[in-house]
What we know:
This protein is of the alpha/beta class. It has 2 domains: 2-72 and 282-300, no CATH class; 80-273, von Willebrand factor, type A domain (Rossmann fold). It contains 9 helices and 13 strands. The relative contact order is 0.15.
Amino acid sequence: MSFHHPAILWLLALPLLWGYWQWARRGHSVVLPYDHGTTREGRGLRFLTRLAGTLPAVLLAIAVLMLAGPRRPSPPKDERVLNNIILCLDVSGSMGISFGPGENRFEGAVAAAKQFCSFRKGDAFGLTIFGSEYIHWVPPTRELSAVVNAMKYVRPDNMPPWMGGTLIANALRGCREQLLRAEEGDRAVILISDGGSGDFGNGGDRAVAEELAAAGIRVFCILIGNDDMGGFGSGGLETISSGTGGRTFTAGDPAALDGVFREIDRMQKAHFKQSSAEWVDHYAPFALAGVATVLLQSLTLLGLRFTPW
């Protein structure tokens, strides 16, 4: 325990002197009939009377302690380590193909991504869309509503013609630059696409995997759709995800996609660190002691005090 204003504690000398005076003073002795009886000059009663006379000094000491501002360290809390996660969504024309009842591949991916954001509160999410080029739609932020609401205005059929291709390595390099700006926390990219990439040739997939791994960025790749994608892009994505400590998933329907995001949630675990203790006010025990002293002093005034003669 410590105090906000320790200099005030020197005032404790006053109640100490007051208490000492209550026990040391002799006053004017008044002889009463019982002094000549069996109580031997009323020593027990004198002790209780002096003890009651010390209570005001105790109350003054409590008041000085409260004026000094008592405080104590609070229990250390577990602070969540920030995860910086970029949702990298493919907005090429093929993402408009039907994926489930009443929705296309892009809409299914967006719905699952929104749900993923909802149970990852405390992390920073960003949104990057890509085709032949990439656009950082929302930088990483803890305001998840910004990411969720931004998804409403991104649709493959609204994209310009120059976004019609698929260059995944290019988009991942853009995400790398964005995540390197994060000053703290882990970094990860969740890439959602339905096809191969035009820039994986000549070792392009290995090169971008090495760049991402050097930056400490994990990549989780999701191949979405029910096409036969065994050799269409999956090899390059496997190289990138395995090279960065992530994983590649295949989702052929909305239910499978939801399960993929839950698996990613288990793999990209939230970490906690113990924060340093903070000092908090600690008035409660002193206030209770003061109230108890006042009540006890009030009871002693009913008769347990020296007569004023």
